[in-house]
Amino acid sequence: MSRSRPTPNPQSDNGSGAPDTILVPRERFAASRVLVVGDVMLDRYWFGDVNRISPEAPVPVVHVQRQEDRLGGAANVARNAAALGAHAGLLCVVGSDEPGERIVELLGDSGVHAYLERDPALATTIKLRVLSRQQQLLRVDFENTPAHEVLLAGLARFDALLPSYGVVLMSDYAKGGLTHVTQMISKARAAGRAVLVDPKGDDWARYRGATVITPNRAELREVVGTWKSDDDLLARVTKLRDELRFDALLLTRSEEGMTLFTDDGVRHEPAVAREVYDVSGAGDTVIATLAVALGAGLPLAHGVALANCAAGIVVGKLGTATVDYDELFH
């Protein structure tokens, strides 16, 4: 099925009069400097054919014929920022093991500036997916949490890197890499940096003071409860933003697009995907695009429009993927 290219089209529910089409010169994205901090993982894919059922149990036997490794978690966020042409830095913890070395190799291939803390006792997180004929049959996770000493070293490295970056992006996958996220947000905001957070879990007090937080519906529901109407949603989000001092909240709503809540009101961006193939990693693309746009000096509403457009492109690709500058502005 063919899919026509969506055009960034920031139309708001409050009639704010944003331009119909956004075109950002490549050099402005190149000047954007985004520091991603968070949990990294290796997305490993095994592809094969299924021709029989196992005699040992009623499960398919997959004859693996091809393996593919991709950056996952915060590493995929940084890869997305780099794909758009920005200067993307990544501060994270990996183990001294084969998956950790593979992440280092893939980051180099992606043009990401990696600042890695190594923990010999850490098993680098792997999400192994087994697929046959483009259908995922099984996912196997390998993971544990990094040591306290390594995380403190990461906090010191953050202090040293902060002056060199204009936007800070916290990518939380609840793997322990953002233990000191509250201090990092405070330091970044004190330095005048925008801070974007992709949250995890129900303790959002850790993200207090962030510029923008980007939950999906399930993540927001876990924190504010189930809303009964758009007015109820607005009331709950406003209360949350007031309590935790978030400048803005961007709610990603899958097939319903995304909604931005700020002091200026509510702006809704309808979904632009023509074909949805795989939504894994779409949230990474959204927050990375928004961070690059803010680093390029674009207004928040324009950044959201571009992020929505990028999401519409990336869900038409298999697995964790990226959108490059030419795709976004074609």
UniProtKB/TrEMBL annotation:
CDD domains assigned: RfaE_like
Polar residues: compositionally biased ranges: 1-15
Keywords: Kinase, Transferase
Location of the region described as Disordered in the Swiss-Prot/TrEMBL record: 1-21
GO CC annotations, alphabetized: cytosol
Record-linked InterPro entries: PfkB_dom, RfaE_dom_I, Ribokinase-like
GO molecular function: heptose 7-phosphate kinase activity; heptose-1-phosphate adenylyltransferase activity; phosphotransferase activity, alcohol group as acceptor
Pfam families: PfkB
Domain Carbohydrate kinase PfkB: 33-322
Protein name per Swiss-Prot or TrEMBL: RfaE bifunctional protein, domain I
Organism annotation: Paraburkholderia caballeronis
